[in-house]
Amino acid sequence: MIKLDKVFKKFGTGVLGLSDVNFTVDKNEFVFLVGPTGSGKTTIFKLLIRETLPTQGDVLINDWSLVKLSKDKIPHLRKRIGVVFQDLRLLFDRTIFENVMLPLDVAGIGAIEAKKKVEEVLAQVGIIDHKDKFPIQLSGGELQRAAIARALVLSPELLLADEPTGNLDPATSWEIVRLLAEINAKGTTVIMATHNTDIIKNMNKRVVGLDKGKIVRDDKKKTEDTPAHKSAYDKDSKEKPEEHPKKESKKEPEHDSKPEKIDEEKKGEK
Amino acid sequence: MKSVKTMLRNARRSPYQAMAAILIMTLTFLTISFFILLLSGSSAVITFFESKPQVTAFFKNEADAEQIKTLGEQLRESGRISSVKYVSKQEALEIYKEQNKEDPLLLDLVTADILPASLEVSTYKIEDLSVVSETLKSSSIVQEVIYQKDIVSALTSWTNAVRKIGFALIVVLSLVSIFIMSIIIGVKISQKKEDIEIMKLIGASNWYIRWPFIYEGIFYGIVGALIGWAIATLVLWYSTPFLASFLTGIPIFPIPVIFFFMILGGELIFAIVLGFISSFVAVLRYLK
Predict the structure, then answer these.
(1) Are B201 and A107 an interchain contact pair (Cβ–Cβ within 8 Å)?
(2) Which of A5, B52, B90, B117 has a C-alpha 20 to 30 A away from that of B111?
(3) How far apart are CA B261 and CA A193, in angstroms?
(4) ipTM > 0.90?
(5) Which among B198, B200, B208 has CB closest to A91?
(6) C-beta atoms of A107 and B203 within 8 A
């Protein structure tokens, strides 16, 4: 579905952002893009939505070359890719409902159908109760969900999430990741950039590691060879003793859900 | 429809900018309305004078009707004359009586004898008046020639000056309003830069982003034109009694209602063009 072919990206400052990056992502895959800040994760996302062009090489989505894509086709491309931006990029003068409505509006979908779709997606991500609130009234996790809802509302084939757990507490982070996994299970290809090693370890999904613009790790084969990888996170792994350590660490989020409860209590007090 | 909604929200959320834009448009269209009214009024006055007997030759007492008619025929042959009217001494008295019927003292003093016979000559063009008047003056039976040349030529040059000033003023004001409006819309675009960026990232086409701004420019234009036209029309309506008495005998009033709506129609079209140009300039400049 996605192919980065010998991609180089040189920034205006002369710094090499990406250097000889090659990887493919198949349909329905869930891929973690990991690496320290500045390693090129966001640059890859920017290339995928044609916000920027590679200096060399090509980016293909469904055999569409983004390098050759004419400017007036960019909106078409972007309507087919849902993006959860690192800084969310919600419109602060619009309600959550209006924010999530925006892509439908941009795509020219009729008001009645659009309203239905927005409510459906808001229910899916679990913030339907907040639909008439403004972004400033929501917590970090809720905003993240709103951003995911906006990315999902056009039913994209591909969802890019740039550090969606970036500044969330572990419990909320896990909720977000589970939500993304659910979305992936429904047939959307998901690429998630993160440096949360805990999540990566426990999800048992393909991991593409980047460092200073180079791919330093791609354990695609490993995940493909693991037949149980699909069920690893949502099914009990009791029958698989070899995955025991994972199971243990998987319990962590449950412990970590305490702070969230405290948070909720605090909210209640307010 | 959606773009119109977005546009109205944008206008509502920055009322001062909207007001500045509407005011400059109002000023422009108020000026345009006044000049249209002034120019059509003065051209109506000129037309009136042009169609009036413009040269009147008064004859000496010894001139008889036959000689005067011959002179009239001579003038007709030049091809410049639209009409020639002979007014005999008796007719002149009738006119005099009619004009002074409220003053019996004046009526008593005057007889047909002391009033001269006259010839009222109209030409097709104002320029021909001086030729006709020279011809008349050179005739031995003519005592005196009077004509409205002075009035008409003064009025014509005055109208031409007004037309030039008005045109220049309208051009300048239109340019000013285009600049001011495009600055205002440019500021609005800059304020929404982040929103625009986000919309682009989620797949908004350029025109999806541009239309609300262009509608906004057109909206300000239309509102400004409506206000400017309304003010000018009200002022004219209010001053109609005064103007009507000032211009007695010149059939301008009442001005047909359709004329005002023609002005409004033309102005609305011009307003849409101005609004479109200014917002388009802004959009091209700030939204690449």
Answers:
(1) no
(2) B52
(3) 64
(4) no
(5) B198
(6) yes
- For B248-278, write each residue's pLDDT tens digit: 666 677 778 888 899 999 999 999 999 999 9
Q: What is the pLDDT of residues B69-80, one digit of tens each?
A: 777 777 777 777
pLDDT at A219 over 60: yes
Tell me which residues of chain B, numbers 208 to 227, contact chain A at a CB-CB cutoff of 8 Å.
208
Q: How far apart are CA B84 and CA B71, in angstroms?
A: 10
Whether residue B203 lies within 8 A of chain A, CB to CB, comes out as yes
CA separation for the pair A226, B212 (Å, rounded): 53
Calculate ∠ Cα A111-A116-A120, nearest 5°: 145
Name the percent of chain B in helix, strand, coil, to the closest 5: 75, 10, 15
pLDDT at B149: 63
3-class state of residue B215 by DSSP: helix
Q: For testing the chain A interface, which of B202, B208, B209 should be mutated: the one with the most A CBs within 10 Å? A: B202
Nearest neighbour of B201 by CB, restricted to A72, A78, A154: A78
The residue with tokens 């008047």 is B133
User: Going from the N-terminus, what domains does chain A have, and what CATH number goes with each?
Assistant: 2-232 (3.40.50.300), 240-270 (no CATH)
Q: What are the residues whose beta carbons fall under 8 Å from the beta carbon of B19, sequence distance 6 or more?
A: none
Point out the residues of chain B with pLDDT beneath 50: none
Nearest chain A residue (CA) to B201: A78
**Closest by Cβ to B202, choosing from A76, A78, A93:** A78
